[in-house]
Amino acid sequence: MTSRLRHRPNVRTVRSPFVIMLASVGLQIKESNLLLWLTTHFLQFIVIADYNRNVDRVTKEKRSRIMAAVHSKNTGTELAVRRFLWSHGIRYRVHAAYLPGRPDIVIPRRKLAVFVHGCFWHGHPGCSRGRLPKSRIQYWKAKIEANKNRDHLIKEKLEDKGWRQLVIWECQLRTRKAASISLPQILDSIVALCPWNATEHTHKSSTSPQA
């Protein structure tokens, strides 16, 4: 009989781990309790899956390393704005230590301070990038609120000194398509805040932008 079964193409050995597990468990428990056992463990599986979906899986130490690696200046968004402005004849200074908040881009002659804000760190309202992590929610909420309060205080100090301000959010340049729309708008906003002469800001220089 065994030799015949070996040559029958329709006979297959069941090797599914799940089936093997059920078979081994079924031998150890009473048949009347099998359904109860399966139901209980299935519910536990659902609870664990839901927990893993809603809880941040990153450890506190790893989360701290991730957040610490985020640059506060010379970000990709900031560099893109600086290159665009420089290519259109806008001359500026960067990270001016003599001004409150060390603005990312400063045009001293026009008394204009430009801030390139990260949506998460500065709590961009209504932006998906401004959502808080799922772990340590109270900690991050307090931290972001403190950043927003500091931004408001810096704004008031610059206004007292007679400086105009422009805030650029990183989500405005999140893709090439978005940047192609936002960058010209940013340039127009800068010109509107502190008008140049007719040809002053359109002159292009071969020198490299401020580092």
Could you walk me through the main structural features you see in this protein, from its secondary elements to its overall organization?
This protein is an alpha+beta fold and 211 residues long. It has seven helices and four strands; from the N terminus they run H-H-H-H-H-E-E-E-H-E-H. The chain has two domains: 53 residues, no CATH class; 126 residues, 3-Layer(aba) Sandwich (Endonuclease, Chain A), CATH 3.40.960. A four-stranded mixed beta sheet has the order 1-2-3-4, with helices on both faces. It is globular. The protein starts with a helix and ends in an 18-residue tail after the last helix. About 9% of the residues have low confidence.
What would you say about this model in short?
The chain has helices at residues 2-7, 17-28, 31-54, 60-68, 76-87, 137-160, 176-193; strands spanning 93-94, 105-107, 112-117, 164-169. With 211 residues, the chain is of the alpha+beta class. The protein folds into two domains: 2-54, no CATH class; 68-193, Endonuclease, Chain A.
List keywords for this structure.
alpha+beta, Endonuclease, Chain A, four-stranded mixed sheet, 4 strands, globular
Which structural category do the helix and sheet elements fall into? alpha+beta
Order of helices and strands: HHHHHEEEHEH
Number of helices: 7
Q: Span between N and C termini?
A: 83 Å
Mean model confidence by pLDDT = 76
Rg computed from alpha carbons, rounded to a whole number of angstroms? 30 Å
Our estimate of the beta-strand percent is 5-15%
Instruction: Report the strand count.
Output: 4
User: What is the assembly state of the chains in this entry?
Assistant: single chain
**CATH fold assignment of the largest domain:** Endonuclease, Chain A
What's the CATH first level of the largest domain? Alpha Beta
Q: CATH superfamily name of the largest domain? A: VSR Endonuclease
